[in-house]
Amino acid sequence: MNEKTTSDLENLRGLIDGVDQQLIHLLRKRLDLVAQVGAVKHGAGLPIYAPQREAAMLAKRRDEAQKMNVSPQLIEDILRRLMRESYLNEKDVGFKQINEDLGDVVIVGGEGKLGGLFSQMLTLSGYQVKVLDKDDWASAAQTFEGAGLVIVTVPISITCELIRDKLSSLPSDCILADLTSVKTEPVKAMLAAHSGPVVGLHPMFGPDVGSLAKQVVVVCHGRDSDKYQWLLEQIKIWGARLVEAEPEKHDKAMQLVQAMRHFSSFVYGLNLYKEEADIGSLLQFSSPIYRLELAMVGRLFAQSPELYADIIFAQKESMHAIGDYLDNYSQALSLLQAGDRDAFVAQFKEVAQWFGDFAPQFQRESRAMLQSVNDMKTD
Ligand SMILES: C=C(O[C@@H]1C=C(C(=O)O)C=C[C@H]1O)C(=O)O
């Protein structure tokens, strides 16, 4: 490189640094404005997440970007990332309390991670939260005395038994809810143990989400839904989307969405281990999709084996769904063994047709994910 090139580069890089610094100032300004919006919404009891506003804003910015020859996708990516930041900052102002007359909230299993998250969200919304965990049963009767809402969030394997044995003498107007990832049996157990309002909830996310904005909570109505309507409103204020379902329908979906999904990730990891794969060098050769896949599998093994065992073993029926998967795997393998490429292609086409419009939709979604996986690479 000659001297002129070096100094040209330095000058230009200095200018870029200046623009990036301005960006930080602009970001600060934006965060301050969003904080003001947060405060206004808090006062009015509005959820921070405003999908219509977001859609309208994104459409306008994409349009403006296009006119300035800036990629619309670039501004959309940046704004979506900024909006995620907005949801996180919302916790600084807390949330509007929908039910000001509720007694205490008691979280049974509140020392668990999900219990901790709900405890935090309820506390940020002005509720008095008490936690009851394994060692606190001696004083439980006293804790339950002033309870307006009891939330059960203990391992699935002990949920129903605990509801039956320990929660049969709650105050009659107290709401009994659970956060278990299966719903049929826990909802039945709650209805049998308690004569007051009952609702089954299943947060479709782990405790490591920074915000509930856009997350899904499944609601299975039990009894006296008018008495716990406020709780649903409260969860909506946290930004979550509620999806109502019959417990049986929910549980059936979970066989695929959770049990099968986690089981196949488990086997994928197990297989890498048995094959003595060298993860480090696989990563070096990895395509973005492989890296993303490995991340999805690897993250399983960073978490609690008991939690995954609980989810996978929760429903006997999952065994059948997983067994079907194994059958399909064997049949597909036999095409490979027979060298029947044409049959494979025909089968592929059949499945693609069945996916319909979802296939291109998933392709678009995964493209963005793959690009951000690639962005995160540092070497
Ligand atoms: C700031 C707001 O709240 C949220 C955050 C937004 C943002 O960061 O631009 C936009 C819409 C909302 O989901 C708002 O409603 O304007």
What layout of secondary structure does this protein have?
Layout: H1 3-44, H2 51-67, H3 72-89, E1 104-108, H4 113-124, E2 129-132, H5 140-145, E3 147-152, H6 156-166, E4 175-178, H7 184-193, E5 198-203, E6 216-223, H8 225-237, E7 241-244, H9 247-274, H10 279-284, H11 288-298, H12 305-313, H13 318-337, H14 341-355, H15 358-375
Parallel strand pairs: 1-2, 1-3, 3-4, 4-5, 6-7
Antiparallel strand pairs: 5-6
Ligand ISJ is lined by residues 34, 37, 48-50, 53-54, 82-83, 86.
Tell me what the structure shows:
- Keywords: Amino-acid biosynthesis, Aromatic amino acid biosynthesis, Cytoplasm, Isomerase, NAD, Oxidoreductase, Tyrosine biosynthesis.
- InterPro entries: 6-PGluconate_DH-like_C_sf (IPR008927), Chor_mut/prephenate_DH_T (IPR008244), Chorismate_II_sf (IPR036263), CM_dom_sf (IPR036979), CM_II_prokaryot (IPR002701), CM_T (IPR011277), NAD(P)-bd_dom_sf (IPR036291), PDH_C (IPR046825).
- Pfam families: CM_2, PDH_C, PDH_N.
- The protein is α/β, with parallel strands linked by helices and 379 residues long.
- It folds into three domains: 3-92, Chorismate mutase (Chorismate Mutase Domain, subunit A); 104-245, NAD(P)-binding Rossmann-like Domain (Rossmann fold), CATH 3.40.50.720; 250-375.
- Helix content is 62%, strand content 10%.
- The chain has 15 helices and seven strands.
- It has a seven-stranded mixed beta sheet.
- Helix 9 crosses helix 12 (305-313).
- The longest helix is centred in the N-terminal third of the chain and has 42 residues, at 3-44.
- The model has no long low-confidence stretch (mean pLDDT 93).
- The structure holds ligand ISJ.
- The ligand C=C(O[C@@H]1C=C(C(=O)O)C=C[C@H]1O)C(=O)O is lined by residues 34, 37, 48-50, 53-54, 82-83, 86.
